[in-house]
Design a protein that fits this description.
It is built from 14 helices and 14 strands. With about 450 residues, it is of the alpha+beta class. A hairpin with a 2-residue loop joins strand 10 and strand 11.
Length: about 450
């Protein structure tokens, strides 16, 4: 394979600035910061790669899990036939007569054409000229009534990446299907909130609109998913967690959820956000997927003296504890590394607002207490320091976990009591859901009640 070269820019500062150059060879991924970039005082690729410390080229061997440095890998949609964004981008490549080999060659072509303006602060381009052109292109400020032209708007959102994507309109036709994998589309709506009109994502300096992610429900596979995610957000907000604005919507008969993007400010400028998956994978090459770390490892990373991940260690570890307890009480067994992110706000680094807190255990195929491999306090395992021949039970696991987090038992007990109070009406809230099948609601209620009893006996 010939070496592939791209450039990385960012809009974290008052104006776009080149961060560095990416080179990918047969064997490794290399990134080099611009000589003067560290003087800007801006964040670099990610928490683990501060520009003032990485003054030489950063190299990482390619493997089956990461062809790129983790913060850059996050810009590439997964290689799945049912990934909506990837399928749409591959059709775009075909429309400009590009037919890369499956795998990394396709990943690369997708990244250099659509790896800008995505979630977070990193913008990847094929060249500096492409970066200048993209940044100089003004935003399209029009809003479209979703009932009148959603199909067109769906295709039009691609033109936010590059004007050449207009060719998609001719290829996909007037009403492209939104079937298959559930689309998660970056769009914009009026700053006053959802009113049935959508537009392309904002550009820097836009005011009058806010950026959202629009999720559409695949009812055949996950009936009632939007109601469940809305319930999860409602419960977390009532319990005192910071959650983004959200609006349950209906799009041409499809159930949807519009969620305000917290990685953009009121002027459309990016805010530094990085997932725990990207952070941990950057610092630990044993991290191979978004389930391959325990919650204890996350807690220890928050206290790592070599890399200050958060401004307030104690508060961050308390948040992690609360999130895990709340996930269990609301039937969300999918609190994986990509659903936990850090965000910078007013010079402080903390956990981001809650996102994707869907009670997925309502669906039997996802009925797991935690994601596979993501244990807490060695729950269910036989730890090395255990003298017993039995696995660690539920109460013991929590005691071990809070010890890792340096949280006292009385504080843990208080947190549990507060979250039990906040979720006391959860079964009734589940019963009121209209689009979730009765069997799924009954299943979720039983899961909540069983977990609730396990926590209550610990008080």
């Amino acid at each position: 394979m010939a070496d592939k070269i791209a450039v990385v820019w960012t809009r974290l500062g008052p104006q776009p600035v080149k961060m560095g150059t990416l080179v990918v060879t047969d064997k490794e991924s290399r990134f080099t910061y611009e000589p003067e970039y560290a003087k800007t005082g801006l964040r670099g690729l990610g928490m683990v790669y501060p520009p003032d410390q990485f003054t030489t080229t950063i190299s990482r061997p390619r493997n089956e899990y990461f062809d790129l440095l983790p913060p850059l890998q996050a810009l590439v949609p997964p290689r799945s036939e049912r990934n909506f964004q990837r399928a749409l981008l591959q059709k775009y490549l075909a429309s400009i007569n590009l037919h890369p080999k499956p795998g990394f060659d396709t990943d690369w072509e997708i990244m250099i054409r659509a790896g800008h303006g995505a979630i977070g602060h990193i913008d990847v381009f094929a060249s500096d000229e492409a970066a200048h052109q993209w940044y100089a292109t003004p935003s399209r400020k029009g809003l479209v009534e979703i009932s009148d032209g959603f199909g067109f708007s769906l295709k039009e959102f691609m033109t936010w990446f590059d004007d050449d994507a207009k060719a998609l309109i001719d290829i996909l036709g007037p009403t492209p299907s939104v079937g298959g994998a559930i689309p998660k589309l970056p769009l914009s709506i009026p700053a006053t909130g959802w009113d049935g009109r959508i537009g392309l994502p904002t550009r820097f300096g836009d005011t009058g609109r806010i950026d959202i992610i629009l999720k559409l429900e695949n009812t055949a596979t996950y009936p009632g998913l939007v109601e469940l995610e809305t319930l999860g957000l409602d419960m977390h907000r009532a319990a005192g967690f910071d959650v983004p604005q959200y609006w349950p919507v209906e799009v041409n008969g499809l159930h949807g959820l519009a969620i305000a993007r917290f990685d953009r400010d009121a002027q459309g400028n990016p805010i530094f956000v990085e997932s725990m998956y990207s952070i941990l994978a950057s610092g630990n090459k044993n991290i191979s997927n978004h389930y391959s770390a325990s919650y204890d490892m996350i807690g220890r990373a928050l206290s790592n003296p070599r890399i200050q991940l958060v401004s307030d260690h104690k508060q961050a570890k308390k948040h992690l504890l609360q999130r895990l307890i709340m996930a269990m009480l609301t039937g969300n067994g999918d609190l994986h590394l990509e659903n936990l992110s850090l965000i910078e706000s007013k010079g402080e680094i903390s956990f981001s607002p809650v996102y994707d807190p869907t009670p997925m255990r309502a669906y039997r195929i996802h009925n797991m207490l935690t994601p596979p491999g993501m244990t807490f306090g060695d729950y269910g395992d036989y730890p090395d320091d255990s003298k017993d021949a039995t696995p660690v039970d539920f109460p013991s696991a929590w005691l071990r976990f809070i010890k890792t987090l340096d949280i006292r038992k009385n504080e843990f007990t208080s947190i549990v009591e507060n979250l039990l109070t906040a979720t006391r009406d959860f079964p009734e809230r589940v019963a009121q859901l209209k689009t979730v099948p009765e069997d799924n609601k009954t299943n979720l209620q039983k899961i909540h009640e069983a977990i609730r009893r396990q926590f209550e006996v610990m008080l």
